[in-house]
Design a protein that fits this description.
By secondary structure, this protein is α/β, with parallel strands linked by helices. It has helices at about 5-20, 70-75, 75-80, 100-105, 110-120, 130-140, 145-155, 165-175, 175-185, and strands spanning about 25-30, 40-45, 65, 90, 125-130. The chain contains 9 helices and 5 strands. The strands form 2 sheets. Strands 3-4-5 form a 3-stranded parallel beta sheet, with helices on both faces. A two-stranded antiparallel ribbon has the order 1-2. α1 (about 5-20) packs across α8 (about 165-175), α7 packs across α9 (about 175-185) and α8 runs antiparallel to α9.
Amino acid sequence: GIRGTGVVTVNQIISTAAFIENKKVIALDQTGLSQKGGSVVSHLKIIDSNQEYSSRVANGEADAYLVFDLLTGVNQKNMSKLNDKTSISVISASEIPTGDMVRSTENEYPESSHLINLIKGFSNKNVLLNATELSEHFFDSNMQANFIVIGAAYQSGAIALNADSILEAIKINGVAVQRNQDAFNIGR
């Protein structure tokens, strides 16, 4: 995704839900220039064993690929984590302009269907939705878009946790609890 708060928060909430289910969690957030509207990539491994693992998802190792922002999602470095035989991609088709696009109308958003097809080509299963549009429709705000994606990921089987654990983790987070729980439920 872009900007840090939403992606990092989602990673933390899924981690908390896994912790509630007594699963081992290894997480890594790469926020880079997120405060300036740059991309954010979070790695999360939910493990049932006590074996040691790297915090970074290796190439071809991702079971789930949650795309909150198409431009970040099509970055080759990120797509290399996918496995065309096992990965489930949950893709928000929302077109979120970069800072350059906002500052200058000469910079146009790339054809979103092309970006989506790039991701689909690296995945086994794909779920497509426009999370921003859904969030604005149901909440008159785009703030719940990421939780709609999480609900869709849960529904598709990309997140192998109990819904009750995810809802409890949202409650533990303590921010916009009802709206975020409702957004998760809309997605699932």
